[in-house]
Amino acid sequence: MEVTSVSRKAQRLSDTAAAVTVLSREDIRRSGARSIPEALRSVPGVEVAQIGAGRWAVSIRGFNSRFANKLLVQVDGRSVYTPAFSGVLWETIAPIMEDIERIEVVRGPGAALWGANAVNGVINIVTRKTSATRGALMSMSVDDRGRPEVAARYGFSLADNVDARVYARSVNRSPAETVAGNALGDAQSGWHAGFRVDRSGAGSSGWSVQGDVYDQESPERQYGATG
Predict the structure, then answer these.
(1) pTM, to two decimals
(2) CB-based contacts of 152, cutoff 8 Å, min separation 6
């Protein structure tokens, strides 16, 4: 298996001089994860805490919080870390799980290659090439309270060596509950859509263009002790 997150180039996993874990597409499928943070729960050294309906705190080697600022997260090498508030909104990273090729997790400092916020590690989510996702796909999942989420994707060829895909998915997350079973009123709803166009060339040449748009309600609720 090849990884690219350690030294900015493709190399065999066994040749990397770093603590690296790779979740393959088959690992993700077998886990039954409905989101990327759920899939990351199986990676050693990664702390994943669910702090609400679809809201997550993810970090490596401690320092975890809603907006952990010591972890770099990328999608196909494109950073989704937000400098405006120093963190990652995990609920906005919502590709179709079947389109993820692998998730590379590097535990340890990577700032020399990736920037100042890659202090404790790097997570790179690599999606499948469009040439491997031609045709139609539909999927549906239901949580333990009966709330469904539906996703659809269609891949097609635009020209010689140029392929594309479009996708759309719904967001429908049940609200979190207290120990007494009372809903906290933070249910998530909305939709995500996007596209990707790839042109393959000889050797390592080629290009890729991606775009995403979403409309999602994610209420934040804070509760403190009284007495």
Answers:
(1) 0.84
(2) 136, 137, 138, 139, 167, 168, 169
